[in-house]
Amino acid sequence: MSVEKSLPSGTGTDALQPLLDYAPDPILIVGPDGRILCGNQMLVDLVGYTHEDLIGQPVEFLVPQALRERHVSHRLAFAAAPHTRRMGSGMELTAQHRDGTEIPVEIILRPIRLGADALVCCGFRDLRERKRAENELRRFRLAMDIVVDSIYLTDLATMRFIDVNAAACRRLGHSRAELLKLGPQDVLATSREQLRREYDEVLAAGEQGVVFERKYRMSDGSEGWTEIHRHVLRANSELLIATLGRDITKRKRTEQELHDRAAQLQLITDNVPAMIAYFDAAYRYQYANREFNRFYAGEDASVVGRTVSEMIGAYNWETIASNVERTLAGESVRFEATRRDWQGSLRIVDTSLVPRRDQTGRIAGVYVFLLDVTERKRSE
Asked: CA–CA distance from 224 to each of 171, 180, 250, 349 (Å)?
């Protein structure tokens, strides 16, 4: 069975010209000797030559200079076994423009027969727009992949990732191909239904987007924490969710360690027979142990958030104000004072004020250590 397309008897290349000009792509007809017989207007527009420039020229006229000699052997090989195929499969082809520039093209070769002559119809596809889009995508990919935070693009309709960056792959322990088979519900500690509700919030937020924290699962089953920034993107008629994930696992672990240490400290200080508190430079209590709270505020109450003068009264504050200022200036101060507890009982307390410095060395507040010495004083 012949693979060549036969044209009606008596059809000449001149008769083909109007037909070729209706084609949506550039087309070139090459004779048995490898010379150009005709081409359509789209081909002329593509390469910048006129019809008169092209007709009679060897087809290598449109091949970049460095490849012309090699192309002759490829053309002869095709003539020996003609069949419809893509030219240069797996290669990037270019056609040479009149101004010397090379135009990326895709070429389909199709043998046709015109009477006794075996011709070749060459269909061109201009790839410049595709190449520009690929270059833009490559730049976009490069920009995404140099970002240290994870980036995910999710199709809202399918709830599947349509693109991820290299940081996302590293963080989750998946290849890009693996992640593109998954969706956010597969890597976050949340259900598909919850995600739908969250995406509705993203749509309602508009350009502002939403920010929150969430656990994520890695390929080995281990978990981490991420700070998520979500925004909605509109691509033609499609809605995409753009997610930037910043890994905060170390911060969350540090916070948990600090929380655990604070709980341990609270447990320890709550079980020592002394009253311990801390107030900042604005004289407002930020911490107090159980005994301190019990003395000044009563059972199940707290002094935290209240000022020193509020708890001990304006008169008593005036009596210790100078000691507080000495402490805020960097001096540790110890003295005895008479105080009334929350029930009005008069007690004698041994008081120590110790300055607290922050990481810069600046004094940020005062530690208070009180010991009720009333019974000892009475016995003395």
From this structure: 9, 20, 9, 49
